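Session log. Operator J.P. requested a structure for one protein chain; no other inputs attached. Running the standard single-chain path with token output.
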Amino acid sequence: MKEIKRVSPVVIKSTPLKIEQRDNWEVVMEYSGEGDGPCLVDLSHRPRFDLQDSNLAAQKPFGMGIPETPGDCVLENGILANRMNGTQVSLYNLDGDGTAIMPDESGYTDVTESTLCVALIGKNVFSICEKLTALDFMDTQKKSPFLFQGPFSHVPCQIVTMNKEGENSGLILTCSRGYGRDMIDSIFHAGEEFGLKPAGEAMFTSWIKGL
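Structure written below.
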């Protein structure tokens, strides 16, 4: 039986230097001409799940505790848990192998292939974001990581500020995959004056380990 090829909704017009095949995804590890930031990394192949339950406090997805307050996030053992509301949490696998398996318990939905996921990392990323949304990713009252749910380039998104500190600044953004082409075009257009470039997964892995 022929295996199904998984295709990212993120299309980047740049030359890959290194590619890996992973769980039927083609993952770019490095692009030609990568700079020292800011950069955009496609993470759409990384497993992502939604968990809904009326008693989230009793749930321990991947053995981790769930943040109690909507908007709060926890990064533990490569899994990012984002509290969305009273009954829902989103879970991103940010570990390098990208092979987290959805738990067998009820309440989980695999949203990997129905959404896009990108990271914006490096200096000036929040200056780029200011051109696309009114959300304040530098909010001094919030401790990273934290979640915003709102419009980004007029598209409903989940955006997690991972770090607010200078050249190590960065965020992770997800939205419906149907907005993929327009979302990526708008981000690169906004980032042109700041030298925004695409980068491979190796760049993200190095960055996330430093947080």
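Operator note: The chain has a mean pLDDT of 93.
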